[in-house]
Write a structure and sequence with these properties.
Length: 765
């Protein structure tokens, strides 16, 4: 038998045993876990005590994630997005019935005890010990609030969420320590306010304000007693007591809360009885989250805004940091989207191209001189239901911003070649012989002192659309009629490098991010671009040579708790891409396209406009890109999968033998611009006098052929695809450093051209 210490005390061994048992029991009780009797004594007290002491003194309280609201330029709501549908409200804006109901059912002694309710713990411990399982919990409202903070901090990471909710002594001890801190620092009113704003009420609703709006379509401050009781009852098990899916179970739970409110004196027995007779009175608002909720067809623009936020370093140094801010929400994002322009774009798209058509269209409008994206839409609606023709692929933007690999712009690239030539000193009335067909001239200078050469034994050729298109032509007529051979002679004359440099200055890049290869077929638009890229490039002409990077966000404010702060946003940076004289000359040339060229059907009547058509070979894509001095826009029509040729096809209920850039995209552009500019001032271009370079009276075609040759298979292979190659070249089509390997094979329909990295026969005008 162990010896007693003098004075009747326990021996060291007995003291140790007693300390161990009491510590374990105290740890369980104080932590409030109310463990069952079986297994409770297996806990290690020493570890629990050390864990308590080693916890940080202050709990990190992350800002509550809230919904983000995306607005247009006029302040109208485009969409709401959130990882947690929550609107934080102060306690004064929460119904007194709601405050009483949650306290009555979750912690009726909330105002009498501290961080831990010892009476509640002992009661629960006794019941659980008798039942042999955890039949009753004893966490106070404060402890529940702390646990919810842990869950909020875990975000959407399932591993962290599991750690934040696991039933362990360690978590309960951590919960207890921070509950003590919270009680000391916040006080009861603030704890209740925080709890009601953080807790989950089911149906994607976090916080009582979101719950009130979800179930009753009203604010939390307007909840009556039975509505408050219903919401308070949901908290214990949002899935079990979901009134939308199980009205009977939810009604029983509501009545339990009402009885409890009467038991603790919050309402009278008569009030409780009357409230229990009332129907649930649900007026459910369906959860609305994400860009699928966007109005005026702005789902793709909404998605682009999200991509900008997640990709721009101004919002955080890392992708993870930016995603954290986005998921935290509470943002009010005012964008550049002009509601009038957006509505006009979608109206025109809907009228000309149906969702069910074999092909799609995408359109983007940009403000010259500012880079502001004012409209962005497409015929395939935003969503995930493929059977309804929905898609989340943004056909207007580059691949790294939620788009695809892009589409060959065809002859809409020719004005960039002309701008490079004019900047190089070429006169605006330059004449080339421009035959119907010809071999690509060779050699042609490229960047870094390299030279592109055609294969003399089997030279690649280029042809115009119509046999009647026979030169000589000057720049004005060649541009109006989009004569391929003229522009091939032009790029061969000035070299490839000035063209790629001009394209870079104008923000023109491949949609897949790869470098443009140094090949003469660039002149015919063989490299895949996005509508946003082309619209913004043409905005450079409209702003007399100033290129401005595209922007979609005007301002952002973020609500954190009771405070509101502004966040920095990306700004458009403008730089001179060409002289005013060059831009004015291009504007003069492209006015001719809509006045008496391939773009006549896109004209805006008395309002001055300029633009260019483009149709790729095999008619996989057709374009119209145009502008006024105060608005620029691009319209693309085609099969995003690049399988359906636009031959013998019906689009928007109208049959077409062949689709040209001046036919389907042109009218879409014209109607879109007309609506977008309605009520806006009519502005004139600064034009220049271009004397004729040739004087011939004979007819050389009606100009409606949407001339040019396409680049053929539009594949993703940049390794060659053109007869011949560059001196010193190698495999790949990657810009200044890599050049196509000299190789050639005759494909089906030789004049369709070859792969997009090589020198195919380009794009029709």
């Amino acid at each position: 038998m162990p010896k007693k210490r003098s004075g009747g005390g326990l021996s060291p061994t007995q003291q140790a045993a007693k300390f161990l048992g009491v510590s374990v029991l105290a740890g369980a009780v104080l932590a409030g876990i109310a463990l069952p009797a079986v297994g409770a004594l297996g806990l290690a007290a020493k570890g629990s005590v050390e864990s308590f002491d080693e916890l940080p003194a202050t709990m990190k309280t992350p800002p509550l994630s809230q919904r983000t609201t995306i607005l247009d330029a006029d302040g109208g709501q485009i969409a709401t997005v959130y990882s947690r549908d929550r609107t934080v409200v102060p306690l004064k804006n929460i119904s007194p019935y709601m405050q009483k109901a949650i306290v009555a059912i979750e912690d009726s002694r909330f105002y009498q005890h501290g961080a831990v309710d010892l009476k509640g713990v002992l009661r629960a411990l006794n019941k659980n010990a008798r039942s042999g399982e955890v039949a009753q919990g004893a966490s106070t409202l404060t402890q529940q609030y702390v646990k919810n903070v842990f869950v909020e901090e875990a975000g959407d990471d399932p591993t962290k969420v599991a750690q934040a909710t696991q039933q362990t002594i360690g978590r309960k001890i951590r919960e207890l320590k921070y509950a003590i801190q919270v009680e000391e620092e916040l006080g009861k009113k603030k704890i209740l306010e925080n709890y009601l704003n953080i807790t989950f009420f089911g149906q994607q609703a976090y916080g009582v304000e979101a719950a009130a709006r979800r179930y009753f379509s009203k604010s939390a401050k307007d909840l009556n007693v039975q509505e408050a009781a219903l919401l308070a009852g949901i908290v214990q098990s949002p899935s079990r007591y979901d009134p939308v899916n199980d009205e009977a179970e939810a009604t029983k739970r509501r009545n339990t809360v009402l009885r409890r409110m009467a038991d603790v004196g919050d309402i009278s027995r008569a009030q409780a009885a009357e409230a229990m007779k009332a129907p649930l009175g649900l007026k459910v608002s369906k959860p609305k989250n994400g860009c699928i909720t966007a109005v005026k067809g702005a789902g793709f623009f909404c998605d682009y805004v999200r991509e900008v936020f997640l990709n721009d370093p101004v919002f955080g140094k890392t992708q993870e940091a930016r995603a954290k801010v986005w998921n935290q929400g509470g943002l009010t994002i005012r964008t550049t989207l002009d509601p009038q322009a957006q509505e006009s774009a979608q109206r025109s798209i809907k009228e000309h191209v149906y969702t069910s058509d074999d092909v799609a269209t995408a359109a983007t409008l940009v403000e010259p001189g500012t880079g502001k994206i004012v409209a962005m839409g497409q015929s395939r609606p935003y969503g995930v239901d493929i059977k309804k023709g929905q898609t989340t692929l943004n056909l207007s933007v580059n691949g790294d911003m939620g788009g695809g690999v892009g589409y060959q712009p065809g002859s809409t690239f020719k004005p960039i070649v002309a701008a490079a030539a004019l900047e190089d000193g070429m006169p605006a009335n330059k004449v080339y012989r421009s035959p119907y067909e010809m071999p690509y001239p060779s050699p042609v200078s490229a960047c870094n002192g390299r030279t592109w050469k055609n294969d003399p034994t089997n030279p690649a050729e280029v042809a115009n659309e119509n046999r009647s298109e026979v030169g000589p032509y000057d720049m004005r007529e060649a541009t109006a009629k989009s004569v391929n051979t003229y522009y091939v002679e032009m790029i061969s004359d000035i070299g490839i490098c000035p063209v790629t440099k001009m394209a870079k200055k104008m923000g023109v890049e491949r949609a897949d991010g790869k470098k443009m290869p140094q090949v003469p077929s660039l002149a015919l638009g063989t490299q895949e671009m996005s509508p946003l890229t082309m619209a913004n490039a043409y905005a450079t002409f409209a702003s007399r040579g100033m290129y401005c990077t595209p922007v979609a966000i005007e301002s952002i404010s973020q609500r954190v708790g009771d405070s509101k702060k502004s966040l920095p946003v990306p700004k458009s940076t403008c730089s001179r891409a060409m002289s005013e004289k060059t831009a004015d000359t291009i504007n003069t040339l492209l006015q001719g396209v809509v006045e008496d060229g391939t773009g006549k059907k896109a004209g805006l009547g008395s309002r001055p406009s300029a633009g260019k058509t483009g149709t790729t070979d095999e008619r996989y894509a057709a374009w119209f890109v145009g502008y006024t001095p105060n608005l620029a826009g691009a319209v693309w029509v085609g099969d995003p999968a690049h399988k359906r040729k636009m031959v013998n096809i019906t689009i928007g209920g109208v049959p077409h033998d062949k689709v040209f850039g001046g036919e389907v995209p042109g009218p879409i552009w014209g109607d879109m611009m007309t609506g977008a500019l309605e009520g806006k001032p009519v502005e004139n271009f600064n034009t220049v006098h271009i004397p004729p370079g040739v004087d011939r009276d004979r007819d050389r075609g009606d100009g409606d052929g949407d001339e040019g040759r396409g680049d053929g298979d539009n594949g993703d292979n940049d390794n060659g695809g053109f007869i011949g190659g560059l001196v010193g070249g190698n495999n790949g089509g990657g810009g200044d450093e890599t050049f196509p390997t000299p190789s050639f094979s005759i494909p089906e329909g030789f004049f369709r051209g070859q792969g997009n990295g090589g020198n195919g026969n380009g794009g029709r005008g």
